[in-house]
Design goal:
It is a single chain. With 290 residues, the chain is an alpha+beta fold. Helices cover 26% and strands 26% of the residues. It has one domain: 4-Layer Sandwich (Deoxyribonuclease I, Chain A), CATH 3.60.10.10. Helix 4 links the parallel strand 7 and strand 8. The longest helix is centred in the middle third of the chain and has 19 residues. The radius of gyration is 19 Å and the shape is globular.
């Protein structure tokens, strides 16, 4: 009888510990682009939803999705909601929206700022010639425990180092302004690997750390950018370098309030070698530091 009681206690304890963990992801889902012949959004979007459901994302930051993509993802993901403004304002253009499970998390607050010298209005990133860039944030409450945290999602410029370095400086400043010393996560496609100066700037800030370094064996067998699986000979110099060097462009950072259990890049495909996006999502299993 005593042995049965001990086993029951151990089982309940193990379940309780497991129940306290959560899965957080970052996923550049690629915009709905007519040039992606063979990889059109309408063909791959169901598999993005299936991937999220199977791997049981509790919440995740997205990059590049247009308004109709976000709505289609929400419809295909019952039990999830999202928040995010468009980078061109008035819900227009690409988003860095954040999805979360509504049964598990309550949205307390939300907002956005632009990665630029004028962060309160839609604007380009310093010397970057391409596009407006935005960072979205939410304050969520874990309904069961009552604990609250802030999550930020962003997509950096892909051309200019100065803009990317300044983006990291701004993100850190805004996190301090918005979240203070509270628990924070930052997720995003930073268009730079682990050793890029803008990724290191965040990791060395003593505010956030890159979860990749938290685990002894991160599951990272290749670059988080896949270029739709094209042969290296068909790629430009930049893409070839990224893939050849297994650069991780997609990152998840934690404040001191969280512990990383597992870090993995999800290389799921469909229809034998087709990719749901030209980026692989990164998924981290984590828990609160007690």
């Amino acid at each position: 009888m005593k042995q049965i009681f001990i086993c029951a206690v151990l089982f309940i304890t193990a379940f309780a510990v497991n129940a306290q963990s959560f899965n957080v992801g970052t996923y550049n889902v690629r915009n709905d682009n007519s040039s992606d012949v063979g990889n059109m959004w309408q063909d791959r979007s169901p598999y993005i939803a299936k991937l999220v459901q199977y791997h049981d994302f509790d919440f995740f930051g997205t990059q590049e999705a247009l308004p109709h993509q976000l709505e289609e993802m929400k419809a295909a993901l019952p039990g999830y909601d999202y928040y995010g403004e468009g980078r061109d304002g008035n819900n227009q253009g690409e988003h860095s929206a954040i999805f979360y499970k509504t049964a598990k998390y309550k949205l307390l607050n939300k907002g956005d700022f632009w990665l630029s010298a004028t962060p309160d209005v839609p604007s380009k990133s310093w010397d970057a010639p391409c596009c407006n860039r935005i960072c979205t944030w939410v304050e969520l409450q874990d309904i069961e425990s009552g604990k609250t945290f802030f999550a930020f999602s962003a997509h950096y410029d892909y051309e200019k180092d100065y803009a990317r370095n300044e983006s990291s400086k701004l993100v850190l400043a805004k996190i301090k302004e918005i979240a203070g010393d509270n628990s924070v996560m930052f997720m995003g496609d930073l268009n730079g690997g682990l050793n890029s100066s803008w990724a290191r700037l965040i990791n060395e800030s003593k505010v956030l750390r890159n979860t990749y370094y938290d685990v002894e064996k991160p599951y990272a067998n290749n670059s988080s950018y896949n270029a739709w699986g094209k042969p290296l000979g068909q790629l430009d110099d930049l893409d070839r370098s990224i893939i050849s060097n297994n650069e991780i462009l997609d990152h998840i950072y934690f404040s001191k309030h969280f512990k990383t259990n597992r870090w993995g890049m999800l290389t799921d495909t469909y229809n034998i070698g087709k990719f749901p996006s030209d980026h692989f999502p990164v998924l981290v299993n984590a828990e609160w530091v007690k």
